[in-house]
Amino acid sequence: MASVDYQSSFILILILSFLFVYYFKKPKNVSNLPPSPPSLPFIGHLHLLFSCSIHKSFQKVSSKYGPLLHLRNFNVPVVLVSSASVVYEIFKDHDMNVSSHGAIGNDDCIVFGSSGFIQAPYGDYWKFMKKIIITNMLGPQALERLRGVRAVEVERFYRNLLDKAMNKQSVEIGEEAMRLDNSILGTMSMGRGFSKENNEAKVSKFTVEFASLAQKIFLAQILRKPLEKIGISPFKKEIMDASYRFEELLERIIVKCEERVYEDQGPEVMETLLAAYRGDNAEYKITRNQIKALLAELFFGGGDTSSTTTRWAMAELINNPKVLERLREEIDSMIGETRLIQETDLPKLLYLQAVIKESLRLHPPGVLLPREFEHGCNIRGFYIPKGTKLVINAYAMMRNPNSWKDSDEFKPERFLGKEEEKREKLLNFLPFGFGRRACPGSNLGYILVGTAIGVMVQCFDWDIGGEKVNMEEASRRAFLAMAHPLKCTPLPRILNPLPSL
Ligand code: HEM
């Protein structure tokens, strides 16, 4: 179904492109732009965006024509970067200039819309919301305050897997991880009642739906300007249909928070957001839609990314038994078999950290990092005009054979040496983005993935009913996802890590 949909959209756009020639002035002949690969008439390099894996078609183009390229979709200019040294130069000299994620595809959409945090321009609203989430949820002190919330959910995760193991039932690891992550995010932001009503399952359904709409959302961002000139809002109906349903769910949850139904756990984020909505806080007054959009984006940007990473990391461990064995030895020697791994154990589990980093290097959820140049500037001696979109191909950079030995192989050891720490600093490793718009949830992300992998490795063996996990990438998803479910059966490995069981 999806491919028919895309083919027909592509044909439609090709036809439209011939009409466009009458509507558009030729792009201004700016000299000294970065080099550009051969392009098609009118549509420029648009065809690259219709491939199943945009990051791979960009990777191919960059390896042939260079790490700093100028592309054009109709007359929308894009600079494609796939080298750490160019990213470093942008980060060092132009971070402020590229501190917005760029155009919005659908203003009213709950995710990536104009009420949200992710697409908000770098300015007062973004700073206000960032302060709220760092102070109340994602900063080091908030993470410490809310550690108990996560511990309860991790224990629930373990009990659920144990139950499945006892009944010899299989589980889909990504789904289990997503339920864990969304219940933690929901409880951290909205209180314990969030999980009691099984909201994590409902939220997970929406994040999966948005993940599958993501390429359309991305295309809408890029094509909105040219297509709106002829009265077309790309993919609007489909995107908004999902958006309205997600909004309804969030509205119901917010009403319960207002009625203080979820009283037990002081959900600081929600309290602060509601105070700003009521105008109790003179600093900034926010709208109800802005609250919903922030929550939706925290689930989408935090839950989907973290559970996707957990799934990739488990798949790599199952396919690399020696790595799994070494990780288990580390966990057994540091923690033993009489208690369940806790997040306070993570800093000393260096090999576990290396496994997660290596998994993020090979399978970064955010394969492409989009930004926009607010002003014209010079990079590497080339001129980049104001309003040019910037796309950093993090996937290509983290698999670049010139920067990473055996770049396509899963070798967590590479993150144990000092050499790799230097590399990280040189921005060769950027699964969480870079600069002032880098991911504010990276610490929580490491905790969510680390504890989930830790529990699954410490307490269970995993039967996949075959030899190897198929590592094929899904196409047209928001975050780099696995094409096939990771279904396996847990087999209990240690007997009772929870004293109360
Ligand atoms: C393994 C887990 C995660 C990965 C790989 C990841 C990755 C990313 C990436 C690549 C970006 C874009 C950065 C850029 O443009 O330079 C981002 C942004 C963001 N992430 Fe994460 N993330 C993860 C977990 C989380 C968590 C747990 C949260 C919070 C609950 C979160 C919240 C956000 C937010 C709000 C933004 C937008 C930041 C802004 O626009 O200023 N992420 N993340």
Automatic annotation (TrEMBL):
GO molecular function: heme binding; iron ion binding; oxidoreductase activity, acting on paired donors, with incorporation or reduction of molecular oxygen, NAD(P)H as one donor, and incorporation of one atom of oxygen
Membrane topology: Single-pass membrane protein
The keyword Coiled coil is annotated on this UniProt entry: no
Entry keyword Oxidoreductase: yes
PROSITE patterns documented for this protein: CYTOCHROME_P450
Cofactor: heme
SUPFAM superfamilies per record: Cytochrome P450 (SSF48264)
Gene Ontology annotations for the cellular component aspect, listed alphabetically: membrane
Gene3D superfamilies linked: Cytochrome P450
Binding site for heme: 439
Transmembrane segments: 6-24
Subcellular locations according to the entry: Membrane
Superkingdom of origin: Eukaryota
UniProt keyword annotations, A-Z: Heme, Iron, Membrane, Metal-binding, Monooxygenase, Oxidoreductase, Transmembrane, Transmembrane helix
Homology family: Belongs to the cytochrome P450 family.
Protein name: Cytochrome P450
